[in-house]
Design goal:
Helix 14 crosses helix 17 and helix 19 packs across helix 20. It is built from 21 helices and 8 strands. It binds protoporphyrin IX containing FE. InterPro entries: CYP450_sterol_14alpha_dmase, Cyt_P450, Cyt_P450_E_grp-IV, Cyt_P450_sf.
Length: about 500
């Protein structure tokens, strides 16, 4: 008997080992991670190649490695998903986390401690979503219109000589006066110039600031401190401000209410973050909307016609437009959305908390999962002739119900979708004012433009504009005068203050 049992042990052991090996082999096959681009330098990995032109890098990697691949750079694993299945997982999986993905960049750029950020984030998000949502935005309309008018008056008739500057000079103060409080934006010319300078440096260096230690970014750090000091000096005024609407808090007052329940030391930092979130995307989009419309004379003409059809016979005083009239201006909204599609954020991200299966690969916990709205918007299956500016493709979207087109991801999706998206589309209407103004210049095919802001992700797309500077000064002045006249009307499509029949024929 003992001999027999000894005889069985060996084959059982061998069988056991074979099964274990087979099982682990199959398991390993199952947990096969995506192909990884590591570069050859330890820790730095593919940083240099990736950092040079991230969006071009992503596209080349997709062609070479397939729909899902990992890039190892600066000690981080970033796994990119480029197909439908990945998109679904990206926005829906409970194994992914938005807050943990952005906590480091936020903590670096605004110096907010991680624990505070995590405690406050969801509360702040819910508040912002409500404050900037469709229902509330109608309350802003009057104020936005007045602010806009005032800023245009302040600029005088000389304009800014530069389209990008013009948009900044109008958008920045209007945003600050509406979301924070009236009068917070500086009035002294020198200070305004300083504000523009520091915000621009802060915004342009944001991506570096989110990763590189601040001590290595001298100018960026200086601008950040300047902006933080501006907020520090004004926090008590922001809190004391009473809006014309009586009880309603401004967006910034509501932010402070939540932040100061936890701590009063972080107020100015949250001020800076709110400012950055509201301006950093909206201004370039306003610019590009105008740019695209200008380079498509037929679209430009249609817009002008639809505007005349709505405002053509109206009188001089403020007139509330009917729903039906507003619908006739749908083309403007389509143009804004089409510009957002073509100039969408380069990358959005989530942290992988538990291994997650996408296509035939398992993405390990700890990876950053990345998705590129910029490239998704160039998928011909969803957007035929994707590189073309075709506002009419938005006809299919149910915009009344605030539904975008399939695969339109510029504002993210799901739980933490951009809370400023409706606000942004309204802001985009601003660019339409400039467009209307330019209508007056019959020779605009040889008209002005300056180099526009590039989309995030450092790819330089083919520029849609005829970048010529012919008689820049007189054109800008001319455009500006009209821009001013149209401001009230185009801004939010609700009131009008002038007789547009006469404007249309200027
Ligand atoms: C064209 C203009 C804009 C674009 C393309 C844009 C895009 C985005 C994207 C992609 C996100 C991240 C969503 C995600 O990862 O799923 C985001 C977040 C955010 N956006 Fe926007 N945005 C725009 C305008 C605005 C405006 C005007 C505001 C404020 C008035 C704003 C406020 C925010 C805030 C506060 C967040 C962070 C949300 C959170 O922490 O959960 N955005 N935006």
């Amino acid at each position: 008997m003992p001999d027999n049992s000894m005889g069985l042990i060996f084959p059982t052991l061998i069988l056991f080992l074979v099964v274990v090996t087979l099982f682990s082999f199959l398991q390993r096959k199952n947990v096969r991670g995506p192909p990884c681009i590591r570069g050859w330098i330890p820790w730095l990995g593919a940083s240099f190649e990736f950092g040079k032109a991230p969006l071009e890098f992503i596209e080349q990697a997709r062609i070479k490695y397939g729909p899902i691949f990992t890039v190892f750079a600066m000690g981080n694993r970033m796994t990119f998903v480029t197909e439908e299945e990945g998109i679904d997982v990206f926005f829906k999986s409970k194994k992914l986390n938005f807050e943990l993905a952005i906590q480091n960049p936020i903590c670096h750029t605004a110096s907010i401690p991680k624990n505070i950020f995590l405690t406050l984030h969801e509360k702040l998000y819910i508040m912002l979503k409500g404050k900037l949502g469709t229902l509330n935005l109608y309350q802003f309309t009057g104020q936005l219109t007045e602010e806009l008018h005032e800023q245009l008056e302040n600029l005088g008739t000389r304009g800014t000589m530069d389209l990008n500057d013009l948009i900044r000079h109008v958008l920045y103060p209007v945003t600050v006066n509406v979301l924070f409080n009236k009068g917070l934006f500086l009035t002294n010319k020198r200070k305004i110039k300083e504000f523009h300078h520091h915000f621009q440096v802060f915004d342009e260096g944001f991506e570096y600031g989110s990763q590189v230690p601040e001590c290595l970014l001298r100018n960026w750090s200086k601008s950040k401190k300047w902006l933080l000091t501006l907020f520090e000096k004004n926090i008590s005024d922001i809190k004391a401000y009473k809006s014309a609407k009586g009880n309603s808090l401004t967006v910034m007052q509501a932010v402070l209410d939540i932040v100061e329940m936890e701590t009063s030391e972080q107020s100015s930092k949250y001020g800076l973050l709110t400012l950055w979130a509201s301006l950093s995307n909206a201004a370039p989009i306003a610019f590009w909307t105008l740019g695209f419309i200008l380079s498509h004379p037929d679209i430009h003409k249609n817009i002008m016609q639809s505007i005349s059809s709505v405002f053509g016979t109206a009188g001089k005083d403020k007139i509330k437009l009917s729903e039906d009239e507003l619908k006739k201006l749908l083309l403007i909204k389509w143009c804004i959305l089409e510009a957002v599609r073509l100039r969408a954020p380069g990358i959005i991200t989530r942290k992988v908390m538990k291994p997650v299966k996408i296509l035939n690969h398992t993405v390990p916990a700890g990876d950053l999962l990345m998705l590129s709205p910029f490239w998704q918007h160039r998928n011909p299956k969803y957007f035929p002739e994707p590189e073309l500016f075709k506002p009419e493709r938005w006809k299919k979207a149910n915009l009344e119900k605030h539904a975008f087109l399939d695969c339109f991801l510029a504002f993210g999706r799901g739980k933490f979708q951009c809370p400023g998206r409706v606000f942004c589309i309204w802001w985009g209407s601003l660019s339409q004012m400039g467009n209307a103004a330019l209508n007056i210049n019959k020779e605009y095919d040889t008209c002005w433009a300056t180099k526009g802001p590039e989309p995030s992700g450092e790819v330089t797309p083919p520029c849609p504009l005829p970048w010529q500077r012919l008689d820049l000064r007189s054109l800008t002045i001319h455009c500006f005068a009209l821009f001013k006249k149209y401001a009230m009307v185009y801004a939010f499509g609700i009131f009008k203050t002038r007789n547009l029949t006469s404007l249309a024929t200027v």
